[in-house]
């Protein structure tokens, strides 16, 4: 699905075939560390994976399966304990707040599946519908 979204947005942008495009996905690390973080852990436990290719390679129909496989391999590799710990060590040596908003032709796909938005009750019963609004949105962000 992520590859399909990447292709559709890139095609809609009508970019030149030689331009680069990047897809980023946040990967949840909570249960993937050895030992895993406790369920009571309160904080972020994610890191971003990035895939960059040219528009021409992405839009070439014969490469779509290759792109899907590469994305799958990147996600699987990003979920391994040693990869997560190496990312933490890299960040400890060079702490910085990463911004993806400046990356040209960028797409970020993310969500908050563990946030219990339909459990909240402010006195009127549970919400019938929850929407994220315009806050923190930019061209290329998919939530």
From TrEMBL:
Keywords on record: Transferase
A Pfam family that the UniProt record links to this protein: Transferase
Residues in coiled coil: none
Molecular function as annotated in GO: transferase activity
Keyword Transferase in record: yes
One GO BP: paclitaxel biosynthetic process
Keyword Transmembrane helix: no
Protein name as catalogued: Uncharacterized protein
């Amino acid at each position: 699905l992520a590859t399909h979204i990447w292709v559709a947005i890139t095609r809609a942008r009508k970019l030149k075939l030689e331009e680069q495009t990047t897809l980023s996905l946040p990967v949840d690390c909570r249960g993937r560390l050895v030992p895993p973080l406790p369920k009571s852990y309160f904080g972020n436990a994610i890191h971003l994976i990035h895939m960059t290719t040219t528009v021409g390679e992405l839009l070439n129909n014969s490469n779509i399966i290759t792109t899907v496989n590469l994305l799958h391999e990147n996600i699987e590799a990003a979920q391994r304990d040693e990869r997560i710990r190496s990312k933490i060590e890299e960040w400890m040596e060079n702490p910085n707040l990463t911004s993806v908003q400046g990356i040209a032709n960028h797409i970020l796909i993310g969500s908050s599946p563990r946030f219990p938005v339909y459990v909240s009750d402010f006195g009127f019963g549970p919400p019938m519908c929850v929407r994220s609004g315009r806050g923190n949105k930019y061209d290329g962000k998919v939530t």
